[in-house]
User: Which sequence fits this backbone?
């Protein structure tokens, strides 16, 4: 048994911030953020919250799927940064949607930017057991929090807020679903927010807690790891799926940055016309990036039944992930 995506939708904050506006806000020369990030626009929550975006995207996906809330028996929150450390975010989404107590299982999956793909793989395995028949995966990220605007403005300018959700059901016929992931923990510290867990005590180490409360990224280290290993990872995934590059109809990558996408296309010898590239228009939405990009592909009428989709991404840790799936 494999699965199918029965419905998908996304949500965005109302506030769009251009790179020119960031130039003015941070006293940079005109064009500085556009030149240093490649991102023209990103969205930022003001009145919206992580839960309100999750709710809007989820209701949209449910409506498009043509299912009733009473049919949903599994809800997975796939986000890199949750609403709060404890409890998990998925039960809060369950409550926001008005799903009755005891009706569905709810849990979180956190694999940083690869959370959606990990959740998709987890749901596929659970559905194969026959335990669940209708799942909702929600990725909602407020990426604009905790950014290093003073220390690393070119990094901070990459990120934007957003959410996306998919309704997943078992496929009625055999289709391709092949997932793969690899982790390279030697670069564990290359991308991180150190505070917020048990590593630093808020009461006993307030200085260290504060110092590590903002996002940090070593771009050179990440580039070195991906340059060395990612193309081979993609080749192995395609071999497992029994696909050649010309079998791929559309590639849905994590929108890490416009530069990262150009590097992906070159490194993996992809047809540029088959790669969904929306990084310049929305920025890096962390775990929401991949499902949001999929929803944009649907909005642009680029998805048709029977297409071969290749989802790809990298994540803090450092991990690579991919799913080859027939739409």
Assistant:
């Amino acid at each position: 048994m494999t699965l199918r995506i029965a419905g998908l939708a996304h949500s965005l904050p109302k506030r769009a911030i251009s790179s020119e506006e960031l130039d003015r806000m941070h006293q940079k020369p005109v064009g500085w953020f556009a030149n240093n990030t490649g991102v023209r626009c990103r969205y930022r929550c003001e009145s919206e919250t992580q839960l309100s975006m999750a709710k809007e995207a989820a209701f949209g996906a449910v409506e498009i799927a043509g299912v009733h809330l009473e049919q949903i028996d599994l809800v997975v929150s796939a986000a890199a940064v949750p609403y709060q450390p404890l409890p998990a975010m998925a039960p809060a989404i369950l409550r926001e949607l008005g799903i009755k107590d005891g009706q569905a299982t709810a849990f979180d999956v956190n694999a940083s930017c690869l959370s959606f793909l990990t959740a998709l793989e987890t749901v596929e395995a659970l559905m194969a057991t026959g335990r669940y028949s209708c799942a909702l995966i929600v990725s909602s990220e407020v990426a604009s929090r905790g950014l290093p605007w003073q220390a690393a403005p070119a990094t901070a300018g990459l990120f934007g807020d957003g959410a996306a959700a998919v309704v997943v059901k078992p496929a009625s016929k055999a289709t391709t679903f092949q997932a793969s992931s690899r982790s390279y923990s030697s670069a564990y510290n290359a991308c991180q927010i150190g505070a917020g867990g048990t590593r630093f005590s808020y009461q006993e180490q307030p200085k260290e807690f504060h110092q590590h409360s903002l996002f940090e990224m070593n771009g050179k280290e990440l580039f070195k790891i991906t340059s060395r290993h990612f193309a081979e990872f993609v080749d192995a995934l395609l071999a497992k799926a029994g696909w050649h590059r010309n079998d791929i109809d559309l590639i849905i990558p994590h929108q890490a940055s416009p530069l990262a996408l150009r590097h992906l296309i070159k490194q993996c010898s992809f047809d540029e016309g088959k790669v969904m590239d929306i990084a310049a228009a929305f920025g890096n939405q962390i775990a929401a990036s991949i499902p949001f990009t999929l929803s944009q592909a649907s909005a642009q009428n680029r998805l048709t039944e029977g297409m071969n989709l290749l989802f790809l991404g990298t994540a803090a840790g450092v991990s690579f992930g991919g799913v080859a799936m027939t739409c």
Observations:
- The CA atoms of residues 65 and 319 lie 31 Å apart.
- The longest helix spans residues 219-241.
